[in-house]
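$ run holo --ligand "thiamine diphosphate" --emit tokens
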Amino acid sequence: MTRKSASSSKTIAKEKQKRGNGRNIDWKRVARLMLVSRGIDEIQETELAPQGKVNYQFSSKGHELAQTLLGLELTHPHDAATVYYRSRPFMLAAGFTAQDAFSGDLARTGSPSGGRDVGVVFSMEPRNGVTVLPSSGDVGAQYTPAAGWAQAITYYQKELKDKEWKGAIAVALGGDGSVATNGFWSALTIATTLDLPMLFFIEDNGYGISVPRDMQSPGGDISKNLASFKNLKILTGSGTKPSESARLIKEAVDYVRSGKGTCLIRLDVPRLMGHTFGEDQSAYKSKKQIDEEKSRDPIVAIRNHLGDSKVWKSLSEEVNKDLRSSLEKAEKQASPALDSALKEIFSSGPHEAKVPPDLHKPALDFEAEANNSGPRINLSESIRRTMEIELESNPRLLIFGEDVGIRGGVHRVTLDLQHQFGENRVFDTSLSEEGIIGRATGMALAGLTPLPEIQFRKYADPATEQINDLGWLRWRTAGKFAAPVVVRIPVGHSKKTGDPWHSVSAEAIYAHSLGWRVAMPSNAADATGLLRSALRGQDPTIFLEHRALLDSPPGRRPYPGDEYALPFGKAEIVQRGDQLSVVSWGEMLYRCLEAAQPFGEAIEVIDLRTIIPWDKEAVLASVRKTGKCLIAHEDTVTVGFGAEIGATIAAEAFTYLDAPVERVATPDIPIPYNIPLMGTVIPSVEILCKRIEGLLAW
Ligand SMILES: Cc1ncc(C[n+]2csc(CCOP(=O)(O)OP(=O)(O)O)c2C)c(N)n1
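-- output --
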């Protein structure tokens, strides 16, 4: 245990004692926390939002009791929760301060996101126990990262034999609207198929903005509809009656903590205000309904529950005074420095994030010499062997995806790894790409090194939301959280055939996905070097494996060694020349090399190796020498990555150019199934040759 975690465990133990180990509820404390949240809403709704100081105001009025009771239960040092924009009462119970809340809503420096994100898109390193994983503005996106954390809890216990994780749980909070999302179903499948210690905490206020609950789940009650779902305990009831809510929430938390499996609790709560500040709910709720909701105000319920009006009065006065002081302090926090938004999209220097506190990765050695002798192996074998070595050297590394287990992947790249390392470390997942990436996020935040595989590039589409949210995670928490997931994805046509579904390249989309590094190696040695660098690095990485290279002679190289690593952003000059620079990557590189052959030393061929970051300097230096450039890729032409390179050359090497910068790429159509048709679409050696000839003659 590190010094930091030892001291946080002590604080947590004290915290537990204070609360009678969670068994006896300190109702005064509950009331106080609820009043703090209610007071923040009041101040925001009557002052800060009308004054234009808070631009997104999400009221939690009505949700306070249930969330506070839950927050006070999550004191295990390895508990985690994913929350949503209405979760401020939970946050306060988990250790967030009123000043944190105000400063986040006012977008000040020192607030959780340093003013980059909306204040209610919460995240928090552990204070009273629970870690609040970076939430998302996407409804439903909170579920699968929580499932990932829950799976990490079981991994720490079963595989790493770490007793500290015993009894920890993961909780995802969501509204009744969120139960219709892909993320909810994906996480529910993950948690229940694996019997994970996960709690789904559904606050049912009857509406998703203006859409009633029966549009989200037939009949409007998800708990009834899930009654026969296997491996799922269901609890349902009021979220506004102190004793009932407390009993239900305790039962739910205790069930999951005891290791019995997954639980879903659905609690009825009123939403006492519009969806956001200024929204008029009378457009879709009758006056009778609004009045009925008011009659369930949990603040009234807790006041009655406390009974003693003097205690209530002094609590209210104390809270109001404290809130004024917190607001004053928050308003004094400066607005962020104007250049601060440009930082922390990628790591810089040593690992500094608070969550996870350490990445536990083997050291990277870019000086390690490549072994150039030995039998030439194909790309597939080099990736497999690298994964094998990395699994051996990093006990926290996990490989998962569809069919990667016993079958060894549909491309056979994970062949035998499950047999060698066991089912905890190399495993098949349910068929949900959102689940694969979301789960990886939760695992990485829990300190593991997830290496998921997506079966084909096109099938990463359902994971887009999670990919984007993960990419920005470091930035939107001002560097406090990091989740360096490495995703392997096969791309492009195969040697034998193509089709619209299995042959997509589209690396440009990932180049546009903020916060991700993107590698696309063209040979076995580079694949090893870049994959190792990704796995031992600090940033999320998309690792693209061209299908036509997985087992074909041009990409074969001797295995470069168990420590060999390549830095990102270093292109390779594959062939030197002085009249034309040809820039390419992946399988297209070999077509370029063949097309360049007749022109001998006139052509300089550059293998970019990584798309993000890309080696601008190498390309510009080459173009400044040759005065001409052709960029070739298999991805489609419009807004393909070649456009970025072309624009950069135009801006930074314009005066050196003797000809227009040209691109050769697949036209803007999917890859056809018919082989000759495919041949007409993916740029051929002949076409490349003609374009080279044309440029040389310019
Ligand atoms: C993926 C996605 N779609 C739509 C939205 C816009 N949106 C924000 S909140 C919301 C309603 C969510 O309702 P519910 O989950 O019941 O939570 P509540 O606001 O009622 O607490 C919608 C549609 C969004 N943020 N994300």
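-- notes --
Confidence is low (pLDDT under 50) at residues 1-7, 15-22.
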